[in-house]
Write a structure and sequence with these properties.
- α1 crosses α3 (52-73) and α4 packs antiparallel against α5 (106-125).
- The protein has helices at 7-36, 38-44, 52-73, 76-100, 106-125.
- It starts with 6 loop residues before the first helix and ends in a 12-residue tail after the last helix.
- It is an all-alpha fold.
- The chain has two domains: 7-74, MYOD Basic-Helix-Loop-Helix Domain, subunit B (Irregular); 76-122.
Length: 137
Amino acid sequence: MEEKLLPKEKNKLRKPVVEKMRRDRINSSIEQLKLLLEKEFQRHQPNSKLEKADILEMTVSYLKQQSQLQEQTFTPKHAEQDFNSGYLRCLREAMHFLSYCEPRKETQVQLIKHFCKAQMGADLTYSPALRSSPLSP
């Protein structure tokens, strides 16, 4: 029977099926969002039945909030400052450890001198917030 139908008529028969599949996909995705963000929804609207529009609005709000948090914590400037401060802290700890070990050997003295030079270079290169006086051996 379908073979005898014109293309226009076939489209009319297929359209409700395609539309139902589209709605099912939308509903499935909304249900997945609801399950993924269930804790977040319970925090905002405990014991309430959420409509699809509520789920979508709260998801958008949650994603915006997460995006803002990421921007604040993971900017390249912060990452660079974190690296620089970690580098300087590591240098200071290594120098501190080496300067208090007894007896001092030639390699210890060389390492301390090397770390002092590296720290002074780092203090000059990095921002003023990270600068501090180097430990003396």
